[in-house]
Specification:
Length: 334
């Protein structure tokens, strides 16, 4: 169906000739009635069931003639295939997503939990950033780069989809997560560099302070958007772990160091957001998407290829075939 969108007609008004097809069919039907005289017989019982392949296939001659007529009309309308080329010049943005993998991200105040909801919406955000380089850093009690900056968004989305709590030592090393992301971006030549930090806790691990990491980010002109994830009040959260590795859940107070998140964002020219539901988190990603627009210039070049001669040739072939068959295999005796 896509190829049909690329076809247009130089003389589309000639397609109105297709309306003559029913009139032509009626003319030939009238002519046939006059040409083949009817012979009255007292009974046709003796001829019942007597048919031949010629009588069964003779009607196909009219189909060939009709198809030939249709193809000739379409050929007269001069169809052209549009060959479109696009040259894209984009000032892309480098974006590092920094996601908290501490056990508290399994809290069930989101459906099914904070981490799964965050992964789903982060993937949707990546889908919107067609021309940008995107990377992924994760942290808990320590931090590492899961995926360096890349334009291969399929790889980024695969890493996002496979994130799990327990991959790292438990804890919330916000400063380490930020410092790792900054280290990946500091040598980038991009005019715009952004970090999106998502966490649900208070910095309690790591040897790099969050403010120190933010100061380094500011030196390299890296803007940081911070997102605090979690409801206000209590939430069903992992409070301990069994010997088999499964978490034991209980109600716990949701604690997010919002003043710190706000300070980090303000220092680097970003913004702080609080997401208390999956819907509000989705809206936050939409706002960041609007704030960090990629400038794209698209130059479209069109070329046309004439297709009428193919249709005219096929129509001529069908009409010749109909003529040959009519006066050979399907020839009738007057």
């Amino acid at each position: 169906m896509n190829i049909l969108k690329n076809i247009h007609f130089v003389n589309p008004e000639l397609l109105a000739l297709l309306l003559l097809l029913p009139l032509v069919a009626f003319f030939f039907w009238q002519r046939r009635q006059k040409y083949y005289a009817a012979m009255r017989l007292p009974t046709l019982q003796a001829l019942e069931g007597v048919t031949s392949w010629r009588s069964r296939w003779r009607a196909s001659l009219y189909v060939l003639r009709a198809l030939g007529f249709v193809l000739l009309v379409v050929a007269l309308a001069r169809p052209q295939l549009t060959l479109r080329e696009e040259r894209i010049n984009a000032d892309s943005i480098d974006i590092m997503m920094v996601i908290d993998l501490s056990s508290s991200m399994l809290a069930q105040d989101f459906t099914p939990d904070r981490l799964e909801a965050s992964k789903k919406l982060a993937i949707e955000f990546v889908n919107k950033r067609t021309y940008d380089r995107i990377g992924l850093t994760v942290f808990a009690g320590e931090a590492f780069t899961q995926c360096p900056l890349t334009t291969d968004h399929r790889v980024v989305k695969e890493f996002l989809a496979n994130l799990q709590c327990g991959m790292l030592e438990d804890g919330t090393a916000i400063g380490m997560g930020l410092a790792t992301a900054v280290n990946r971006m500091k040598d980038s030549d991009s005019k715009s560099k952004v970090i999106i930090l998502l966490t649900d806790g208070v910095n309690n691990a790591g040897y790099v302070k969050p403010i120190t990491a933010a100061e380094i980010a500011r030196e390299f002109n890296i803007k940081i958007y911070t997102i605090g994830v979690g409801t206000k009040g209590d939430a069903l959260t992992p409070v301990s772990r069994r010997s088999d590795g499964r978490y034991i859940f209980g109600l716990a107070r949701v604690e997010i160091d919002e003043p710190l998140m706000q300070q980090i964002s303000e220092m680097t020219g970003g913004r702080y957001y609080r997401a208390t539901t999956a819907e509000s988190l989705e809206e936050i990603y939409n706002q960041i998407d609007q704030l960090e627009k990629t400038r794209v210039e698209v130059t479209s070049i069109k070329r046309y290829s004439e297709e009428f001669y193919r249709l005219a040739g096929l129509a001529l072939l069908l009409l010749i075939l109909e003529f040959v068959l009519r006066y050979t295999l399907f020839r009738s005796i007057p």
